[in-house]
Amino acid sequence: MPKRKGRPVLHAVTVLALLTGSAYFTYELRKDEQAKVPAAQSITDNADLQNSGAKATGKQTWERLNNPARSVLRDGKGAVVATFTDGARTATLKGPSRTFAEPANTASRVVTDDWVRLMPEPWTKGSENEQWFKDWFKQYYGSQEDDIFAIAFQYVQGAPVKKDSSGVPYAGDAVFGPFKEDGVDRLEQNDFYDYLGIPYTFRNGSTLYPRKERYRALDCSGFMRMVWGYRARFPLMATNALGDGLPRSADGMARSKTGVDIIKIQGPSPWYVRPTNIDVLQPGDLLFFKMDHRTGNHIDHVGLYLGLDTDGHRVFISSRKEVNGPTMGDKAGASRIDGNGFYAQLFRSAKRL
Length: 353
Fold this sequence. Notes:
It is a single chain. This protein has a domain at 6-42 and 52-152. It has helices at residues 6-20, 31-35, 47-50, 131-140, 148-152, 192-196, 220-231, 250-255, 342-346; strands at 25-27, 61-65, 70-74, 80-85, 90-101, 109-118, 162-163, 169-171, 200-201, 207-208, 260-263, 286-289, 301-308, 314-320, 325-327, 347-352. Helix content is 19%, strand content 23%. The protein has 9 helices and 16 strands. The termini are far apart. Residues 1-53 have low confidence and may be disordered. Strand 9 and strand 10 form a beta hairpin. By secondary structure, the chain is of the alpha+beta class. GO terms for molecular function: cysteine-type peptidase activity. One of its GO terms (biological process) is proteolysis.
C-alpha cells in the first residue's frame, strides 16, 4: 500500500492552529488586526522630535534623543527598529506582531510589534560600536524567543504549567496569595521562591525559603521579580536592603537606584501626585502606584507597562488581590493609566530597568 504523504503535514498545521488560538497568548501576523491598532505610541519627547530622524536613507541610522537620554536605531525607511536608554538594560526591539489577551478578566487586547528584552550590560552612548552589543543584537533582533511580555503572560489565569528539567513548575496560573484568617483579604509578601516552592540563594549568599501555604502565589513585586529576575536573569536583592539588583517590594523598586527613573515620584507624601505627562513611557517600563493609606509613605503597587491596547488606552499587567493573580484586568474592565479610572488616578512614577 502506498504511503500517505499528506498526513504529517496536515497534523503539523492542525497543531500550529491550536497553539496560535490559545486564550492567553497568541501570535497574530494578520494585517487586518494591525490595521485596528492606533498609531504606535511615540517614544520621542514630543511631536516635533518624532520625525526628526525619520527620513528615508536606504540604510540603518542611529539617532540620539533626550528625556530620557537614549539611542534610537531606524531602518532605511526611517522607521524605528529599536530603542536603548542610557543606564538601562531594557531594550525595545521591533519584531513580528503579537496579540496579548486575557479574556477571563478583561476584553482589553494588546496587539504589538514591540519585543522587550534585557541586554547583558546597561546602555551608554556609543554602545552600538561595542562588540558585546553587536553580538547581542545579532542574536536577538528578529528572534521569537520568549521576551518579557511573553514571560509575563505565562502566569495569567489559564496559563499552562511549564516545568524545568528538575520537575519544578516555573510557569503557569499564579494566585496573588492565600486568604488571611478573616477569609476576606489575601496575604501579601509572596515572592517568586514561594511560587516555585524551592529555596533560593541570592548573589549576596542569603538563602530564603518558601512557605508551603504560599505555593504558586505571587504578589505584585513578586510577579515582577519572577518575570525580570528568575526568568530573565536580572539581578535580585534578597530584601530591600541586602544585595544588589531589583529590591523586594514595590516601594523598594520605585526608590532604588537600579535602572532609570523615567517618571519621578513627586508631590507631598503620603499620597504624592499623579504625573501630568506620561508620553515618555515605553513598553516594558515598571509602573508604580500609591493605593493604600495603611502603607504610610510607601509606594505599594507595581506593574509592567504593555503600551496601547486596541482601544487606544495605555494598559499594564500586574498581580493583585481583586483578580487573585497576574492580570491586565481591572474592576472597570482594563488596567489603564490614562483617563480617570482607578489605577490612572493612583499612578505615581515609572522606571526603566
